[in-house]
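Changelog excerpt

This revision adds worked examples to the README so contributors can see how folded entries look when concatenated. The first example is reproduced verbatim below.
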Amino acid sequence: MEPIFYSKIDIQIRFNDLDAYRHVNNNSYFSYYDLGKDEYFREVFPPDFRLQTVVPIIANIKADFLQPIFYGDKIVMETRCSRLGNKSFTLQQRAVNVSTRQVVCESETVMVFFDITTQKSAPIPPQYRQNIIAYERGQVS
């Protein structure tokens, strides 16, 4: 069964994203993943979540480059939570070429909640956990 991605954001391909081969440089993909994460967080977490002392940070990221992206391509970044642990969760992301409907790249990012006061990992705050569960069940606010 195909996973459902409720969080989607259009990606603007900039001229400076291109490399000498005239396609998007692999490094630029990570800024696209960041845009997708930011959109997901905006949709799921409270507006002030970045001001809290316990925040999500990246612990690990893995990316697969499946098809090149070219200047002018219409790309949508899709993001979903594929695993929810006690202190961490995994975001699955994929960029889809709107014209061809092909997935051009995929990523998995392990996010760990981190207490910036103690400088240690921390349990996912209960409200954030509830928000993620509700969002992934399609109860999009």
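The second example, added in the same revision:
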Amino acid sequence: MRSSKDEREALADFAARYMVPSTDVVQEVERKVIGAVWGAIGFTTVAQADLIAERLDLTPEKLLMDVGTGRGWPGLYLAKRTGCEIVLSDLPIEGLQHALGRAEAESVTPLGAVVASARNLPFEKNSVDAIVHTDVLC
């Protein structure tokens, strides 16, 4: 499936955003608002991520897909907190590269990282137990 004009524009925009290093001010805002520093572009809080883990009943036996992974928040946090397996997916490879670096820092080993649009994910139906896509418009 071909990417849409909106996807191409979002890809270029987010690829550029991932190249800009985070500042101390941005990290402090993130710490105060989100409760953690991940270089996140969204605003899902730690408390909301904990609620997501509870609602999805994430356990070490579950496989979570993080659609629109970005730098890995909150998917990698959920995997570390619950022990669930995780697959990362996003359109800009630059975000996935950041997420894989963060996964290593958090001692989380994703089952995979896939460059793909949320409109056209290369996975079989029912191949994951849960999906998270916070701060993502699909």
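Reviewer comment on example two: The first strand starts at residue 63 and ends at 67. The radius of gyration is 14 Å.
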